[in-house]
Amino acid sequence: MLKSGPAKKVSIYVGEDHQYHGHSLYAAILDYLFYRGVSGANVVRGIAGFGADHHLHTTRILRLTENLPIKIEFIESPEKVQELLPKLHEMAGTGLIEIQDTNVEKPSSISPKGAPQPAMPALKREGKAKLMRIYVGENDKWRDKPLHKALVESMRANDIAGVTVYQCILGYGANRRINQEKAQNLSHDRPILLSVVETEEKLRAFFPILDDMVQQGLVVLSDVDIIKYTHNYEAEERRREARQ
Fold first, then answer.
1. SS3 label, residue 13
2. Which CATH architecture has domain 5-107?
3. Same CATH fold assignment for domains 5-107 and 123-243
4. Which of 194, 195, 200, 196 is nearest to 128 (CA)?
5. How many other C-beta atoms lie within 10 A of the C-beta of residue 190?
6. Does domain 123-243 have CATH number 3.30.70.120?
7. Which residues contact 75 (CB under 8 A, 6 or more apart)?
């Protein structure tokens, strides 16, 4: 966290259409600062400017796709800035990096709503479980409801820990027909995958319901090792006790 005292103000100037590994450069720099623990950063979009090439950039209506100037700015301790500079030099490429000496009179504080709770060590749980994958079609129904949605609701009602639904863009099943996402055919029957991680006991107990709901599809069970990190584990224990 940024503290009162001497600090450095860093400004990085790049073009709006500059790329870094296939993504917007300014967004990549902002992500880098965020995940390296910088206290705060801002991105400002210019309306006009020119750089080393003396090419004028403007927001005039006739030039909506112009490469406008972008400034990323943050304030950090001198030590933190020195730590970040090598990577920022690499990312900025042909852009400009400016560093000014400054002084932090009052660092920003976290609002009460977003204030962190008293630090507690994360609880790490490891164990064995089953991974269940359910393959169905997007157009499959159960009592006039999309089957994948009905399965999610049914699992929630039966205390399954969690399920994730994936919409596939390409695939085929037992009928050997290719199913894919096509702009000209929005109603095409794309494959749907539901992924569940639970104890074998709970999944086996859910099988009779699954048998009734899935008329045509594929269910796969695999052994998995689970690793779970929990910070607010006291509240989780209370919820578990309440369900028992």
1. strand
2. 2-Layer Sandwich (3.30)
3. yes
4. 200
5. 19
6. yes
7. 2, 7, 8, 9, 10, 39, 40, 102, 104
d(CA 179, CA 150): 22
Q: What is the pTM of this model?
A: 0.53
Domain range summary for the chain, segments of one domain joined by +: 5-107, 123-243
Please give the chain's pLDDT, 244 residues, in tens: 778 899 999 999 998 889 998 889 999 999 999 989 898 999 998 776 665 565 655 555 445 456 788 999 999 999 999 999 999 999 999 889 999 999 998 887 766 665 555 556 666 678 899 999 999 988 999 999 999 999 999 999 998 989 999 988 776 655 556 655 554 444 466 889 999 999 999 999 999 999 999 988 899 999 999 887 666 655 555 555 555 5
HSE-CB at 62 with a 13 A cutoff on CA atoms is 0
Distance separating alpha carbons of residues 34 and 57, to the nearest angstrom: 29
Q: Looking at the DSSP assignment, which residues form a beta bridge with residue 198?
A: 130
Residue 2, amino acid: L
Cα within 13 Å of Cα(213), Cβ side: 23
What is the SS3 string spanning 179-199? Answer: EECECCECCCCCEEEEEEEEC
